[in-house]
Design brief:
The protein is of the alpha+beta class and about 70 residues long. The protein has a single domain (about 1-70), classed as YggU-like (Conserved Hypothetical Protein Mth637, Chain: A, 2-Layer Sandwich). About 20% of the residues lie in helices and about 40% in strands. It has one helix at about 35-50; strands at about 1-10, 15-20, 25, 55-60, 65-70. The N and C termini lie close together (about 5 Å).
């Protein structure tokens, strides 16, 4: 399954807003430096979806706030 995520790094609180079945907004505390925010997005999504982090990968948008994420 692929989902489209808009990220908000450096947020005061971590949360996930589901827009529709394939679009989400994810707030993470990590800054957008050296892949820290990407790791935070995977961690927060894994908790939200109740899936292991190993099943979630960023397919595109590694340096962008708009990401395509694949969930196995």
């Amino acid at each position: 399954m692929r989902i489209f995520v808009k990220t908000r790094p450096g947020a005061g609180a971590e949360k996930v807003d589901k827009i529709d079945e394939t679009h989400y907004i994810v707030w993470v505390r990590e800054p957008p430096e050296k892949g820290q925010a990407n790791k935070g997005v995977i961690r927060v999504l894994a908790e939200y979806l109740d899936k292991p982090k190993s099943l979630i990968t960023i397919k595109s948008g590694h340096t962008s706030s708009a990401k395509v994420i694949e969930i196995l």
